[in-house]
Give the backbone structure.
Amino acid sequence: MPNRHQITLKESLRTAIWAQGLTPEQMARVESETFETFVPKGGYVCRKGEMVEHWLGIMEGMVKMTNFSAAGKSVSFTGVPPGGWFGEGSVLKREILKYDAMALRDSRIARMPMSTFHWLLDTSLPFTRFLLMQLNERLGQFIGMVENDRLLNPDTRVARCLVSMFNSHLYPGLEKLVQISQEELGLLSGASRQRANQALQLLEKQGLLSLDYGGIRILDLEGLRRYEA
């Protein structure tokens, strides 16, 4: 059986939405200064309290943005699948990180230095437009998450968690088969693995998704978006 093609760093950068409007000279500098790191499952991509140094892109794997209270209670903000980039707010403000980013599975991370990011901001109008859209989409995502967390029951939270991953601007690489485990989905939606499994079985009976080997296949995205238990 042939090995699955492993995306290269250059391929990852050149296919990113934000790169489409760059000049060849700008792209060359991005490729020369951006580098890749590997983070194993459970490892930290970045830590709360660290000074921000890079804008971060997911080449392979999945990363969750999370925070822990002094008592050890955790809250997950979002999961970032392959093709997604995050951390632009902290890079723009040149501040310390306000959250942890942890790998939900073995992950390959593209790291664009903060100096490269700000140079693009100064020299590329298309990149600046992309960032305006990115920040606007991120704001809408987090407003929705606050509503979901405070108003919705676990079944609806699981549905909305899956829907939140289908944002063509934030996560352009995601396909109808979401390669996410029930444990990972539980962590992202604030439910146990068992409770996430119950929710998925209910949503499957409703004809909104199917539980396939290796992930969750979305059958009715709009139905999931409207679903409320």
Remarks:
- The radius of gyration is 18 Å.
- The chain has nine helices and eleven strands.
- The first strand starts at residue 35 and ends at 39.
- The chain has a mean pLDDT of 85.
